[in-house]
Amino acid sequence: MRIGSRPTLLKLAALALCLLVIGGCASRDDRVLPEQEYYELARSALENRNFSTATRNLEFLETYYPFGRYAEQAQLDLIYARFQSQDLDGARSSADRFLRLNPQSANADYALYVRGVASYYMDLGLAVRYFPVAADARDPGEQRRSYQDFFTLVNQFPDSPYAADSRQRMIAIRNRLAGLELHAARYYVKRQAYLAAANRAQGVVEDFPRTPAVEEALVIQTEMFRRLGLRQEANETQQLLALNFPENPALDSDGEFIRQNFGIQDRSLRNVLTFGLLGRPAELDD
After folding, report:
1. Vertex 50, ends 48 and 56: CA angle to 5°?
2. Beta bridge partners of 251
3. For 114-155, what is each residue's pLDDT tens digit?
4. Which of 45, 54, 153, 233 has the smallest set of CB atoms within 10 Å of its CB?
5. Which domain holds residue 43?
6. Which neighbouring-strand residues pair with 257?
7. Is residue 55 situated within a structural domain?
8. pTM for this one?
9. How many domains, in total, are found in the chain?
């Protein structure tokens, strides 16, 4: 059969038609929708708790209509959608962007609140949720950022509906930070670094005076001062302990301090210098 026969032409025409159809579908999928249509699709997805679809349409809205009619509301909705889909970093970034673009917005308190809550939970992820890792023993990381957001919110927007919860979260953050300092003090006690332990305990007392960690910090501080031979400092700290926590078990019925061992074991010089890493090796199983 010679080139250009009818069957060959029909095949080429069919192929061309398929390509046109595919190209037409692609162009329809890639076309930019009207601003209102993106917004309505996003709102419908939010109402149905389909946060991934909502996020996608809100991102399109921001990309194609950054200064449009729905721009500010779309930015707020994007903060919400990302937070609800557990994209904490994305929620915080969206809140950052909103606050930069709308510093005088009546909804700035909402952006501050979500940014603070996102940071609040970023350090309490899967490791804390599924493994026995004490939150007080971990680097606080975003906790200080979170505290600053809540602090700004309650000071600039004291009547905000988010102010009361922000105050409670600030208390929780202070307790965590105090717990972190206390954890470090315990570590130094076990290492027999008495001055370092006393300094960390003093940091709890001075920087976090209204936290539950203060009571144990005073006990550690008193014992460390006694071991360091600092009698006056030990007596002053003991008086603070007796005045504020008279029922503490480290005090006898007369308010006198009872020596605390903290499970410390005397170690050889080599053991101290090597942080216990050159102790007796474990026995092998038979």
Report:
1. 130
2. 257
3. 999 999 998 665 444 433 344 444 557 789 999 999 999 999
4. 233
5. 33-105
6. 251
7. yes
8. 0.73
9. 1
For residue 228, what pLDDT is reported? 95
Q: How far apart are CA 114 and CA 167, in angstroms?
A: 14
CA angle 11, 16, 21 (to 5 degrees): 125
> N- to C-terminal Cα distance for the chain?
86
List of residues 6+ apart from 73 with CB closer than 8 A: 39
Give the whole-angstrom CA distance, residue 99 versus residue 111.
7
Residue at token pair 């210098």: 273
The CATH number that applies at residue 48 is: 1.25.40.10
Distances (CA, A) of 52 to 17, 56, 85, 93: 35, 6, 7, 16
Domain membership of residue 114 (yes or no) is: no
Q: Which amino acid is at 4?
A: G
Residue pair 67/40 in contact by the 8 Å Cβ criterion? no
pLDDT, tens digit, for every residue of 229-244? 999 999 999 999 999 9
Flag whether 62 is in a domain: yes
Q: Give a yes or no: residue 101 inside a domain.
A: yes
